[in-house]
Write a structure and sequence with these properties.
Elements: E1 27-34, E2 39-46
Antiparallel strand pairs: 1-2
């Protein structure tokens, strides 16, 4: 997998949601969540 590649984008309309990542290979990913007031970036490890 190529580092720094954009993989997906979802629009979430509720306070609690899940995202299907079953198609991703094992590895470390960066997840960025934005709303009207803030941007949150976290690392995600998939086994």
């Amino acid at each position: 997998m190529t580092p720094g590649r954009f993989l997906m984008q979802n629009q979430i309309m509720t306070d609690s949601s899940s995202v299907d990542v079953s198609f991703l290979e094992s590895g470390i990913y960066v997840v960025r969540v934005t709303d009207d007031n803030q941007i949150v970036t976290r690392k995600f490890l998939k086994h």
